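Pasting as-is:
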Amino acid sequence: QEEYLCDVFYSWSGEDVRPRSSICKILSAPSYKFDCYRDTLCTDRYILFVGTTLFIYPRYDEYAGEDVHKKRYIERQIGFFSSLDKKVRKDLYIKEYYVDSGWHIVSRIARAFPMLRFLGVEQTAMSYGAVNILDRNMSFAEALAGCKLMICDHLSTTWREALYLNKPFIMLLDKETWSFREEALESMHLMESVGIVIYAYEEAASLLNRIHEDVLGWWNEPERQKVIKKIRKNFLSEVENIDDWWMHELLHQARS
């Protein structure tokens, strides 16, 4: 969609995997969002599960009042938490999206699993109009910096933020919901091959039960690190001085 609004569109991805377009020019560029993480103090206190209520599919009533995507999404979360060992649940914090959009997902999960702990729920808004950015009690960056492993069950910037901070992560994705650009398929297959992308929640829970006491040992296995280095190169455009890079780039665009 952004292609129709731009002459030049900047992607965080490297040249080999960035989107292709016949409508506008798409270039690779570093992210100020990630650059703000440069001096972040990281700890390894807990396992972090990150959810969402923001999907890529259109929000309209095509299922006679029942959103089957939402229902399936919440059921998969409940299935994942149910499959975790008790000792893993004790080490788990959950951060759902800061806008609930009428899903009531935190209360539903909390009723099913009273022992689970949540981050940032005090300022969860029911709609975007009610969001007070200045009053949010915990940003995602703070939650991510404190974890030893992040699990996210959706596609967003979340996993790239973990990648930037070199935080171990697992993407638990639903093949019925998410689709991938052709340019990204090779990278997705690589991440699947080393257990970073998993589709069955039972498999993801089994892996977490096995590795949660030695996450770094799992993350630093040579085959997995080889993939991580390639994925980092493909999906993060990193420069020494981001201000200089953007100044040079924007001047170039202005003169061309």
